[in-house]
Amino acid sequence: MITVDRATGLPTGWSVRIKPACDLQTVTLIDAEGIVRQWTVRRGADSHRGGEEITVRRLADITDPVFRECARELVDRHRDHLITAAQTFEAFCRTVGDLDHLTQHLESTIPGLGTRIQIDHTTLSVVATLTATGQATGAVCSLVTTWLADTGHGGQLPSGVTMDLQHNDLTLTVTFDQARAEAFFTWYSTHTAALPVDPTIAEEVPAIVD
Question: Minimal CA–CA distance to 208: which of 159, 162, 151, 171?
Answer without folding.
Answer: 162
